[in-house]
Design goal:
The chain is α/β, with parallel strands linked by helices. It has two domains: 105 residues, 3-Layer(aba) Sandwich (Cobalt-precorrin-4 Transmethylase, domain 1), CATH 3.40.1010.10; 117 residues, Methyltransferase, Cobalt-precorrin-4 Transmethylase, Domain 2 (2-Layer Sandwich), CATH 3.30.950.10. 27% of the residues lie in helices and 19% in strands. The chain has eight helices and ten strands. The strands form two sheets. The chain has a five-stranded parallel β-sheet with strand order 3-2-4-1-5, sandwiched between helices. Helix 2 crosses helix 3. The N and C termini lie far apart (56 Å). The mean pLDDT is 92. This is Precorrin-4/cobalt-precorrin-4 C11-methyltransferase. It holds the Pfam family TP_methylase. InterPro entries: 4pyrrol_Mease, 4pyrrol_Methylase_sf, 4pyrrole_Mease_sub1, 4pyrrole_Mease_sub2, Cbl_synth_CobM/CibF, Siro_Cobalamin_biosynth, Uropor_MeTrfase_CS.
């Protein structure tokens, strides 16, 4: 492996949901900086015994960059292990910009996001024919500002499937905005710690989900999924329809006509 920084998505929780490529790089790393607040420590079992390990949960951006800079100067392979997929709420842009200023090469290795893990946990598909062909990834405004055009109420008006990150602690506000936007009682699910051993799934509607979440005392590390895809009638995909032709198969009716 090259002397550079690898931003790797560790997946949503289950250590086996890291990619094969990500695991191989992790195994050969000299330095590992991992997001200790959300990344399973089981990943560290695959690190070399001589690897330097840093938990970024207690570090500032400046401190993280200092470790990267010094380690690169020493010719080491550095892994920055992020939760889920690093491109979604991963705060990697600011790190990559600093590395570019220092002329330190880097690579991004994608991972399984918590929003897909959450859908898998409740065995649902976001994109159903005749229901929704769009998935919106968003969050409600807290200490991090959200553009007015992306306010949750505005997005809910679209009627698409939605995955809401980093917002379960403000569930009252989430439900209020979703009700105003959707304008009806839409199915909703809250998945706490998707793929972890203590995973918990709650399914309800906008009318009752708030009480269910409060009774389970879920206040963090949960994904909110909302939309008709959770509980609805839908049309089968044309892809496997016996009368639908495509580049790899002729439809049944077409074969008969020939």
């Amino acid at each position: 492996m090259e002397n550079k920084v690898y931003f790797i998505g560790a997946g949503p929780g289950d250590p086996d949901l890291i990619t094969v490529k990500g695991r191989k790089i992790l195994e050969g790393a000299d330095v590992v900086i991992y997001a200790g607040s959300l990344v399973s420590k089981e990943h560290l079992n695959f690190c070399r015994k001589t690897a330097e390990i840093y938990n970024s949960a207690s570090m500032t951006l400046k401190e993280v960059m200092e470790v990267m800079k010094d380690s690169y100067s020493d010719g080491k392979v550095i892994v920055r292990l992020h939760t889920g997929d690093p491109s979604i709420y991963g705060a990697i842009k600011e790190q990559m910009d600093e590395l570019s200023k220092l002329n330190i090469p880097y690579e991004v290795v994608p991972g399984v996001s918590s929003f897909t893990a959450a859908a898998a946990a409740i065995k649902k598909e976001f994109t159903l024919p005749g229901v929704s062909q769009t998935v919106i990834l968003t969050r409600v405004q807290g200490r991090t500002p959200v553009p007015q055009t992306e306010d949750l109420e505005n997005l809910a008006r679209i009627g698409a499937s939605m995955a809401i990150f980093l917002s379960v602690s403000m569930m009252d506000r989430v439900v209020q905005k979703l009700k105003a936007g959707y304008g009806r009682n839409v199915p909703i699910a809250v998945i706490k710690m998707a793929t972890w051993e203590d995973e918990k799934c709650i399914i309800g509607t906008l009318n009752d989900i708030l009480d269910k979440v409060k009774s389970e005392n879920i206040t963090k590390t949960a994904q909110i999924l909302v939309g008709d895809f959770i509980d609805c009638n839908y049309k089968n995909s044309l892809l496997y329809d016996e009368n639908f032709s495509h580049g790899y198969r002729k439809g049944k009716n077409e074969n008969r006509s020939n």
